[in-house]
Amino acid sequence: MLANKKIVIFDMDGTLIDSVGIWNEVDRKLSERLGGRPLSEEQLQTRRERMLRKFSGRENPYLEYCGFLKSEYGSPLSAEQIYRMRYEISSDFLKNTVDYKENAEQVIRLLKNAGFTLVIASATRKQSMDVYRLQNQNIMRKAMLDQYFTRIYTKEDVRKMKPDPEIYLRVLQDFCAAPEACIAFEDSLIGLEAAKNAGIDAAAMYDRHSDPERGQIERISDYRFENYSELYHAILKEGIIASAL
């Protein structure tokens, strides 16, 4: 898995951090404020992902998504106002609730100490990522992003969202790296597709919110892990880290 690899790339939401369910809660509260009928967590997530995929080629897919919500609920607010409202709702969650997935920070430290270059390639907004970097005490206490990751790519760094490979191609270009020198960890089907479309080996990190896509995820991924403890021991078992240390 890590033999001949130099760069390890992680997605953020749902992969490194346990946050997908939080965004479902944000969208539930947003829908309530817009006067929408109650939806289940699965319905909220499916709708959001469907719209983001539909608008993936637009300049700001999340703004387009908020425009969809405006139309869906007949809101007098503009798409821009709904977009700002969504971030305001999410602010407290981002600062105080979001945390690493269990044992993720141990894997991060292990890889960094062994000399791998660590990169984040995420569709997360820079504004949200900056909260994780500078304000979220759960993350900062365990493994500060700026300390362990050489480069953090966010939505603003690319024009097209996953499954388009643009963000991964950008990593390859910026680091002058061949796809064979990299491995990507993703929780979602579209993330895995993006990595594979760039020619990069893709490892699936389990997240329950991706269960509806489980069959496709298992078919497309090169490696699969249920949790970071399993990944940690798999890395040690390879012997690559031991020799590097």
Automatic annotation (TrEMBL):
InterPro entries, per database record = HAD-like_sf, HAD-SF_hydro_IA, HAD_2, HAD_sf, PGP-like_dom2
| Superkingdom of origin | Bacteria
UniProt GO molecular function? phosphatase activity
Q: Which SUPFAM superfamilies does the record associate with it?
A: HAD-like (SSF56784)
> What name does UniProt use for this protein?
HAD family phosphatase
Q: Which organism is it from?
A: Candidatus Egerieisoma faecipullorum
